[in-house]
Design brief:
Order of helices and strands: EEEEEHEEEEH
Strand content: 15-25%
Structural class: alpha+beta
Helix content: 10-25%
Strand order of the largest sheet: 7-5-4-8
Number of strands: 9
Oligomer: single chain
Distance between the termini: 40 Å
Number of helices: 2
Low-confidence stretches: 147-154
Number of domains: 1
């Protein structure tokens, strides 16, 4: 995943006394009402495939105690959260701060053909006029490349070894 959009949806606690959710959300955008497009130059935009891109401000509400920039496992569904309390939700998030993850590989040109983008500088979110519940965007963050994470980890380990020897 290349970037994450954080929204304003939240889990509904169906059993408020026990603090359990059934996986349903409040404030979540209506599926199919948002289109995400990306651009390197703010002139030519490529829409992310609607068959691949999830709903902005849909599943995976923001959790401020999690790590921003770390995607939630995209295989999870609302049913995955059924019967979970806050600790159970955070366990499924596996340290992530939630949000909706997107991949540049989903970019398509005007003929719906895949487009290869090395990087982007602009993200446009279009909301359909007839949306009953529109997406609310709180923030957008780029996800670090796995190679970057590996280099940072190795660099940190090298510093620790160097300190131990000194």
């Amino acid at each position: 995943m290349d970037f994450i959009i954080y929204g304003n949806a939240g889990f509904i606690f169906s059993d408020f006394n026990a603090g359990l959710t059934d996986g349903s959300l409040f404030g979540a955008a209506t599926p199919g009402t948002t289109k995400v497009s990306v651009s390197a130059d703010n002139v030519t935009y490529f829409q992310l495939s609607s068959s691949l891109a999830p709903t902005v401000d849909g599943l995976f509400p923001t959790d401020g105690s999690g790590l921003f920039g770390q995607p939630v496992n995209p295989a999870l569904t609302s049913a995955s959260f059924n019967g979970k309390d806050l600790a159970g939700i955070r366990s499924l998030y596996a340290g992530s701060a939630g949000g909706t993850s997107f991949d540049l590989a989903w970019a398509r040109d005007g003929s719906d053909q895949p487009v290869s983008l090395d990087s982007i500088s602009y993200i446009r979110i279009d909301v359909s006029a007839g949306a009953t519940v529109a997406a609310q965007v709180d923030g957008i963050v780029a996800t670090p490349e796995p190679a970057t994470i590996a280099l940072l980890t190795l660099g940190g380990a090298a510093l620790l070894l160097r300190k131990r020897r000194a």
